[in-house]
Amino acid sequence: MFTFDSTEQVERLTTIVGQQRARHVMNFGLHVNKPGYNLYVSGNVGTGKTSFVNSVVNDFANRDAKLFDWCYVNNFEDEYKPKVLKLSAGLGKKLQKSMENLLNDLKVDIPSIFTEEDHQKNRTSIIRKYKEKIEQLYKQTDQTATDYGFLLKQSGSTIVTIPMGEDGQPLSEETYNALDEKQLATIENNSVKLQEIILDATKSIHQFEQELKRSLAGFDHQTALIAIDYHIDELKKSYKNCPEVMHHLKAVRKDLVENFHVFLPNESKQEEKPLGILFTDEQQAFKKYTINVLVDHSETEGMPVISADNPTFYNLIGKVEYENRMGIMSTDFTKIKPGYLHHANGGYLIIQAKDIFSKSQAWEGLKRALLTHKLQIENIGEHTSIIATASVNPAPIPLDVKIIIIGNMDMYQILYNHEEDFRKLFKIRVDFDIEMNYNEENITGLVSFIHTHCRKHKLRHFDRTAVAKMIEYSARLAGHQNKLSTRFNLQVELIYEADAWASMMGDDLVSAKHIEKAIHEKTYRSNLYEEKVQASIDEESILIDTVGEKVGQVNGLAVYDLGQYRFGKPTRITATTFMGRKGFVNIERESQLSGNIHNKGVYILGGYLGQKFAQTYPLVLTAHIAFEQSYGGVDGDSASSTELYAILSSLAEVPIDQGLAVTGSVNQNGEIQPIGGVNEKIEGFYTVCKSKGLTGTQGVLIPHQNVKNLMLNDEVIEAVRDGQFHIYKVQTIEEGIEILTGLPAGQPDERGEYEKDTVYGKVAEKLRMFMEFAKEQEK
Fold first, then answer.
1. Helix (H), strand (E), coil (C) string for 123-186
2. Among 248, 245, 246, 229, which residue's Cα sits nearest to residue 75?
3. Quick check: 479 and 676 in contact, CB under 8 A?
4. CA-CA distance, 305 to 309, in Å (whole number)?
5. Residue 338, φ and ψ in degrees, nearest 5
6. Does CATH place domain 543-778 in 3.40.980.10?
7. d(CA 146, CA 86)
8. What is the rounded distance in angstroms from the CA atom of residue 7 to the CA atom of residue 22?
9. Residue 78: count of CB within 10 angstroms of its CB
10. pLDDT digit string (tens) for 27-79?
11. 253-279: buried (b, 16+ CB within 10 Å) or exposed (e) per residue?
């Protein structure tokens, strides 16, 4: 069958094995670039959904794409509403570096230009000009005071007038007191006039001082503007094709000119404050000119593909962080942090359903972003916080992203039926199958799958016998002779474990014996409970007969599912029948141990008996059905045929071969219907028969449709081949009852009556007797 000696000689896997439908739908969903066409990938755990999605999306995204960097910058008009810049990929980091260089250059150039000799001379000239004006005004005022007979003296911020004598010296108190009234009146009058002159002079001096400040400020602004404009103009050359950057640089220039003094040393303030506070203040002063590059696509090739490992609300939508500054929580535009959606904008975001729907507010945040087509960063804590905290309200970012949620069908149904917005947003469902066709393409893919894992994880390669066993194992997992399983997680486990056994045995290649050993050991690690059940059967704590005949007693078959391990074991099903009108009494149901599907199966039995035996007279029957020694819940209808056989045996008083076990559901027409777990059920009964002793007549009745599902272990196959164990395919109840009893079932004649020596003839006779006796009692 294989042309290679080992998997080392085959090609590596380039795509997922099987899943043709999923690939087709996925490809279509990725091509539809319209709102609402997000994807939900549905399938069982272990079918390779996540690997498949990542592979397909990355291949699809590996094309030329128009990507953008997103940056937040200070809003110089309202610092609590940061602005967003949309830049071509790679320009964000470039602009950030350009602004850093601008600040560094201005920190050098502005102090330097202010200390240049020409600047100091011009500044001194301006000061001298106003100083001369002020001195001239002082001289004029002093001369006026002299003319009025007064001396002027500065006292703090005021000017005091002192009467002056003829010698030009202040009048003594004795001389002042000797003056007559006329002289005193003249002094008083002159003092009033002089005060008015002094007041006018003071106002003029203040005006001169203000003019000096304005002149110096204007001169300093013009001086700073030389350095600022030089560097801003250089920046504009680099970003002349970016209107948003040009607009921002205009605002930066305006603010720099207004606040150029922050670039100048202030020795008095440095002396007053500790070094740490000075450093923090300097950082804060320059921070508003920086660029917060939220998303950088300078090294992104193709469209971004992001996997959300922890999709909390903030991790998806982004957040604003805070810092404690001297006991006060504060923030600004530099503390805005991106979320997965920011990084995936323009591309694809892959999310696990179990992750996003287990995180508070995460789905609401994602849904809002998709419905509004924008990313609005917000602090959800503000809605519930008792203490108000100053925050920022960043401008929203337009959102263009395709979401792929990976989950199971149960989650999808819940969302589709109970979340209206989910139906609007996720219009494409990609279904993953748990099986694939047993054909050359998929077998080749499975071989390449083995090769790829061996190569990737440095495992021993598999020879042809090991590959054959792996294919057999895959078919067993699928439970079908014409199918292979897509539960690759379980197959990978077997690859790893077979490699480990090959290593322990010192072999260079993995062969069939290592696969068999790995399967055996995997079973041994998990089948403790199975062994306990078997021990209970061997000890007859659980009563199971595998030889002899019993009336109204049949071996049913059940599957125990322990998660990692499933096994089958027989269970005794009994039926007792007697005259009455209660019909079928399901003892499990009366004990509240029966599930709805099992109840339905029991009701079907009445329909079958009524159709076969109550066409000319009513059923006067009470039948009790029980799963003996069953103390847990019972559900499913795979034992309904078994229950019917037990009832027919009880009514006909015909014994049933206890060396046979039965599985299969039945409809009201007596047709046997397929069931699940057929391999585990057969193997489970074989194990019990083997333990109690094989007779060569034991076996299992299965629905004929389940023949294609037979993937039995080698021991059971060998036993069947040697005639030590038997498997009977059954289409109808009539076929089954004949195998179980050894008697013909019987066919009705034209009057609807059965031959007496048949099973159905005996049943009909018993039911007629019940009816006639009941009729007599009613008289």
1. HHHHHHHHHHHHHHHHHHHHHHHHHCCEEEEEECCEEEEEEECCCCCECCHHHHHHCCHHHHHH
2. 248
3. yes
4. 13
5. -80, 160
6. no
7. 73
8. 27
9. 11
10. 999 999 999 999 999 998 888 889 889 989 998 987 778 899 999 999 999 99
11. beebeeebebbeeeeeeeeeeeeeeee
Bridge partner list, 328? 325
C-beta separation of 37 from 29 below 8 A: yes
Nearest to 737 by CA among 669, 638, 623, 652: 652
Query: How does pLDDT run across 454-496, given as a tens digit for each residue?
Result: 999 999 999 999 999 999 999 999 999 999 999 989 999 999 9
545 neighbors 641 (Cβ within 8 angstroms)? no
318 vs 293, 321, 377, 513, 547, CA distance in Å? 13, 10, 6, 54, 71
Comparing C-alpha atoms, which of 393, 387, 262 is closest to residue 328?
A: 387
Nearest to 340, CA basis, from 373, 304, 367: 304
Residues of the chain with CATH 3.40.50.300: 19-67+300-432
CA separation for the pair 416, 411 (Å, rounded): 9
Report pLDDT for 47: 83
- Which one, of 322, 337, 325, lies nearest residue 389 by Cα? 322
SS3 category, 304:
coil
Distance of alpha carbon 321 from alpha carbon 331, whole angstroms: 7
Reduced 3-state DSSP string for 577-610: EECCCCEEEEHHHHCCCECHHHHHHHHHHHHHHH
Q: Whole-structure pTM over 0.85, yes or no? A: no
The dihedral region occupied by 113, where left means phi > 0, alpha psi between -120 and 50, and beta the remainder, is alpha
**Cα separations in angstroms, 217 against 103, 109, 224, 266, 768:** 21, 18, 10, 16, 121
- Every domain of the chain with CATH number 3.30.230.10 lies at 543-778
Domain 19-67+300-432 CATH assignment equals 3.40.50.300: yes
Question: Tell me, what's the pLDDT at 285?
Answer: 83
- Helices marked H in 16-90 — which ranges? 20-31, 49-61
Per CATH, the number for 7-16+434-526 is: 1.10.8.60
CA distances from 604 to 364, 589, 729 (A): 47, 15, 22
